[in-house]
């Protein structure tokens, strides 16, 4: 998935008749209801809404206005913070990647599930982040970054978002998943090295 850092959301519409007429650019910021200009991820649902993860929570954009969603659960211990990635499960619920946890939320804003995989109390420098989610038949494949030692891993999650398999990639600079195709997980590491992981044989192919 792509990340959008230090970026104003730019929504543009093209007016087409017999030929391309013009491109209109609209800049959206705090004054329009966006919770923060530092946007980390954008995804669109099947109804056309844009879901926007920022360093200060989750927003939904309907083409006119922004709505910010409160990500606290019933215990109140999960304060809204940086939303690094927005995905959708097979039922259309949102899967949100935050530090040390994944959230499953319906489109009305109800938190359906909280999955911890790090310390409950957030501490800078010790956070763990699961993102780059790619859906599979049995769940998800994703990247786990552990800030405590700088390591990256490929992880398989079941449909309950539980980690069921982990392949340690060690201390590298960066990992980005590209696609899952015919049992092969394609990813880029160190920004320019294309690699393939066979999800059945559990090996890295050179």
List the helices and strands and how they pair.
Blueprint: E1 9-16, E2 20-28, E3 39-44, E4 50-54, E5 57-61, E6 66-69, E7 85-88, E8 94-98, E9 101-105, E10 111-116, E11 128-135, E12 139-146, E13 151-158, E14 163-170, E15 175-181, E16 184-189, E17 193-198, E18 203-205
Antiparallel strand pairs: 1-2, 3-4, 4-5, 5-6, 7-8, 8-9, 9-10, 11-12, 12-13, 13-14, 15-16, 16-17, 17-18
Report on this structure.
It is a single chain. By secondary structure, the protein is an all-beta fold. The protein contains no helices and 18 strands. The strands form five sheets. A four-stranded antiparallel β-sheet has the order 3-4-5-6, with no helix packed on it. It has a four-stranded antiparallel β-sheet with strand order 7-8-9-10, with no helix packed on it.
Q: Which sequence of strands runs across the widest sheet?
A: 3-4-5-6
- Overall pLDDT, averaged? 82
Distance between the termini: 23 Å
The Cα radius of gyration reads 18 Å
The helix-strand sequence is EEEEEEEEEEEEEEEEEE
Number-wise, the strands total 18
Give a short summary of the structure.
By secondary structure, the protein is mainly beta. The protein has no helices and 18 strands.
Features:
206 residues, mainly beta, four-stranded antiparallel sheet, 0% helix, 54% strand, globular
